[in-house]
Amino acid sequence: MKILVPVKRVVDYNVKVRVKSDGSGVETAGVKLSMNPFDEIAVEEAVRLKEQGIATEVVVVSLGLPACAETIRTALAMGADRGILVETDVELQPLAVAKLLKALVDREQPGLVIPGKQAIDDDMNATGQMLAALLGWPQGTFASKVAVQDGTVTVTREVDGGLETVALPLPAVITADLRLNEPRYASLPNIMKARKKPIETIKPADLGVDPTPRLTVLKVVEPPKRQAGKKVTSVAELVAKLRTEAKVI
Ligand code: AMP
Model-level pTM greater than 0.85? Predict the structure, then answer.
């Protein structure tokens, strides 16, 4: 079974994000960009399934600017076998990404697609669900445990009240949540090996998809600054303040 893992290049989670002065978006020039953390978890899970002999090949795909090839290389260094870069300078929104991924699924015929549960730049949490809908495949979102056996994947999902376990017939889409695993660091020899692994570059038109955005961003603003707290000198003063001043925001 082949596994397809979409990996998005996003502003690194350690970077303090700044809004562009014209309010049109977030500053990415001169900022460290890395693989979306949930996608690292997805790559790790796919590589573990290959190590267990359940998967035969792990294919990673990134959609966006040419620099996304670096993100693909990181996934190849973690153990993925080959990469596909769908190159475009159009700003991609989840529906366009899902359509492009569907076209790749039609071509590659994987048994599993494992996207991250959400990209930390736009927080959409939509692509995996849209892809499953376009494919007509079952979906196991927010996966914290995955087990594949006899044409079925059992997915433990993190839901509000606790954990829900669902069984899905393959092929299926699973979206990776934080507790699914702890991704490995790529070792130096594996980084060297990854340089020789193939990356195919194609354009959205090669997949017959028009990626033009459907949503317009009106404005991006910084969150309001937190106001300074107040120090109290006694429990009695704290209780009085909680009674008279504290508000539910
Ligand atoms: P989102 O729906 O935007 O929160 O993204 C959910 C997941 O879809 C991400 O964790 C990625 O696995 C995948 N994804 C979204 N955009 C891209 C992209 N441009 N390239 C590769 N994967 C993507």
Answer: yes
